[in-house]
Each structure stands twice: as structure tokens, then as C-alpha cells.
Amino acid sequence: MRGVAVALTAVALLLGACTGGGSGKPSPTATIGFADCEKNPTTCNGGELKLGGSYTYGLERTIANWNVNTKDGASPSTKQALSGLLPQVFEVDPQGRLQLNADLMISADITNQNPETIVYKIRPDAVWSDGIPITADDFIFSWKQNSGNPLHCNGCTPAATAGYDVIKSIVGSDSGKTVTMTFTDGKTFGDWKGNFSNDGLYPSHLATKQGYDLAKPDGVYAASDWFARTVPTWSGGPYQIDSYDRDKSLVLKKNDKWYGKTKPSLDTITFRFITDPAAILPALKAKEITGMSPTPSQTLVAGVSGTPGVIYEVGESYAWEHLMLNVRNKYLADPVLRRALFTEVSVKTVVEKTYGAFDKDLKPLGSHNFVPGDTGYKDVISGTGQGTGDSEKAKKLLTAAGYKLDNGRLSTKAGEAVPTLRLRYDKDNAIRSAAAELISAALKNIGIDARPEPADNLQQALTAGDFDLVLSDFVNGPLYQGAAERRWATGAAGNYGGYSNAELDRLVHAAAIDVDPRHAADTLNQADDLLTKDAYVLPLMQRPTLTFTYSEYANIRDNPSVWGPTYNIGEWGLRST
Questions:
Q1: Rounded CA gap, 308 and 512, in Å?
Q2: How far apart are CA 397 and CA 338, in angstroms?
Q3: What share of the chain is helix, strand, coil (3-state, %, to 5)?
Q4: Disulfide: which of 163, 221, 319, 558 matches 315 by Cβ 3.0-4.6 Å?
Q5: pTM for this structure?
Q6: What's the pLDDT tens digit per position in 193-208?
Q7: In whole angstroms, what is the distance from residue 325 CA to residue 336 CA?
Q8: Pair 10, 310: CB distance under 8 Å
Q9: Are 447 and 408 in contact (CB under 8 A)?
Q10: Contact 89, 105 (CB under 8 A)
């Protein structure tokens, strides 16, 4: 799924390396740094390490909540900050593949199809930083936090319940080192590998020490809330927290009880919170940070490329930008108006004027469920005319349905003027601000006044349905089966615009429970045809990634998942030569 554009600074220039052609991809002679990431995404920027040293990594958001099993705590920045602490059953590698975490697990396998049963084998030496073993109790605690069932947790607000809400039981054996998870009779879940992987395990024994009764729903909630409020003194990974300066920095040190096969090289890793995009380049040039993977911009890419000693990579993430409509608005409830609106928008222009300014290979996205390179990817949009910017076609759709365009204003067949619509986006996102202006200007051609209106808290606006049109994103991943149901099903948590289609509900649910991933992908493409016809969300493009680091550090590389480059944080280090 990766299409990588790389530029090498100082060291590369010394060797005469250059980028070739209009694609921005490296020439065959650019063999250092990130130059081989396209061919070797899981090993590029590797090298022999020496013990010791420190690294400072920039994060775009501060930490509001320390429990990634909650809505407020599930942000990419929080997950990355805690990546050195949280044990996961499966991890996403830079190719977007799920890999069993061999440090924590011996195995995780389906042992029965009906009822669907998964048996996890935890390594005997896997322990928390206080020496207490990681066991089935930690799996059970995670399940109860995420199930969405008030009988398990009275008050928990999980980021997602899919996969946890269909578990019937979790039973430990072999001193808790064998975990048997059984799904409810008649229920299956194709994305079972996401359980205990999209988030991470928390030490249940510490909650018990606080006096919380994890056998009771109120006790689970109190424990979940305690983990959310409390800076972790614990770890189940290669690093643990040494100090925290609120909203400024988080410092990690080595976990002396780390049980993994690879011992960390760096003595400390500091996460520095840089919430102002304009502050990133000055911090890099002053070596206040030594690496980062921020939201890219043309200015940022140019600035990074001009910083001596820094290598960088522009890749493709699982996140994709889109334009969503609120179908609760009585005017946008008409699918004809929605189709005309999407037809008037030129996605190609939006791409070229935003991320495409520095990622020349970036193209319009043609799917609501997959990104190019995924085995299930199918362009279901291009043939419909949506996203083409075809004003004549958009006008014909409207006039055929009785709409009238008079003096630059659009009226319904009942003679009602379509009112000004609010086009929301997050106020600190310059890319979306530019996209909003482009879309607003285009829609004037068909008499629609879409007024760009930045939101102080876009997630809050989405959850409240406080928009008519909105520029936002979704984040895909290798676990695609349940994601569609969470976004498109009637009343689903991610269905912010109030969309509903009974046949689509049936299809996305069938895909979510299908034990055959390829068949599920076919089902999702059928659902995508319906979603496109109904013109609820217009995909725009994959969001590029930007990863950069000073070249003396090895094993830091792009990763398309929310964990970003921190997916292998225990392997970061200074080059030995």
C-alpha cells in the first residue's frame, strides 16, 4: 500500500544522491537513510546500534487521558506516547500487516468455529514492571472496559466496542498464561486480531490494589477512570515513564523488568508536545526534537529538506480525508442535491492544491472502505461523476429534479431557497482550511452557499452533529471488516451525519462477522456501491505521512497505523558507526 517519496539532505548531497523524475521517488543511487523504504519498508534506515544516548520525538497533541481504552484517550498522540509501555497481542508493521507480538505472545489462534473461540498463549516471562505476571486477568479487564455493556462497566466510554461486544467469556488457565476467549453463540467476528491490539493491556492488579472490585461494573469503571487520570508508574514494555511535565514533555527510561528479546539501546526517550505547527521546524533546527511524524504541509516538507543532517520520508497513511454531509438537514436529506453537490466538487483540484503540492503521486480516492494497495480496493466513485467538478452534469441533475438556479441562488421545486450551509473543519488545520475554500468556491457554481466555519473542537462538532458539511478523516487499517459497520450503519458511533440505509446495514454487518476476509471485502464493495449512490461521504485522498529524523539514529521509520514510527520504539538507537 505504500508509495514513498524520499528526499535526502546533507549526507545524501555529499554522496551526490538525487531524486529523479517528477514523482519525487529516489534514484537507485540514493541508498542511505530512507531511500530503500519503498522496497524494504520494515528494515529501512536500519543499522548497528551502540548502547546509550537519548532521543526527543515531537507529538502534535498533548495527553488528555492516559487510558487508550477510552474515547478521550484513544488519540494517536497518546498511543504513541504510551507505545513503549503498552503490551499488544498483534502489532501493525510498516507494510500494514498484523504481526503477532512475539515478545508478549507464544501464539493466538482460532481453535473452534462454532462458537468462535480464540486461545492466547502468553509468554511465561511476560511481566509488568513491578514483576507481577501479565495474565488473563488483564485481558478480562480490557474486555470489560471495551464491551460497551453496563453489566461489565457502568459508565465506561470505549473508543470502539466492536469485537468486545460479542464476547461471551474469557477464562484463564495455566496460572493465567493461557487465555480462552469465546464469542457469544451464533456470533462471529472477522477482525478478532484487533482485540487487545488496537489499544493495549493495562495492569489489572494495580486497580485491585487501589481497592476497585473488578467483579463489579462500578469497580471496573472506577478502575478505568483511575487509569485515565493517573500518570502511569507501570509498564509492560521496554520503557517506562521517568517524568512528566504537563503539556510540555514526557520522559521515558528503560524498564528494568523488560522481558523482550531485544533490549532497548537508548537510555531515555523524550516526547515533546508541539501543538503549534509553526514551532516544529524551529524545534528541529535547534535539535530540541530529533525526529517527528507530524501532519505534513508543503512548508514543513521544504523546511525539513533544508535542515542539515536530517533525512525524511513522505509516505501514505491509512488516514483518508473526506467531505461528509449531515443528512439531518432537510435540504441535504435529498440524495439528488447531495449527488449534484459531490459532482460539482473537483477532487483532483482539491488534491493538487493541498497535499498534492508536495506529494505528486497522490490521486483522488475511489473507495469508502479501502485505500490503494489493499487487496479489496475498488474504485466505485469515478464512474459516477462524483468528484469530477462537472458543473453541467451537476446542474442537469438539479434541474431534472425540479431545482431552479436564479441569480446565483438555488431553490427547491417547492420554491424554497437552499439556505447557507456551514462547512466545518478544525481551525488549526491549514490543509483543510484550503480545501474548504476550494469547495466553497466550487459550490457557488450551482447556487449553494457553503460558508467555511472552523471548529475549535472538531470531534465535539462531529459527535454533536454540529455541521452541514464537514471536512474530516477516517483511519483505515488491516482490520477493515468491523470499521465499515462502525462508520456507516444506522446509529453507529462514527456515523456522524445521520445516514441510514437498511440494505447497507445488512451488508456491513455481514462483512463484520464474516470469517473469510476476502469474501468480506467483496461484501463491503457492494455496500460501497450503495453508499456512493446515496452520496453521503465523498472520499478525497489518502493523507500523506511525513517522517523525519537526524541521520545518526537508526530503526526509525514510517508506519501507516496510528502508532506511527513508535511501533518499534524499543529498537530505536544511535548508530554505532
A1: 48
A2: 10
A3: 30, 25, 50
A4: 558
A5: 0.84
A6: 999 998 999 999 999 9
A7: 13
A8: yes
A9: yes
A10: yes
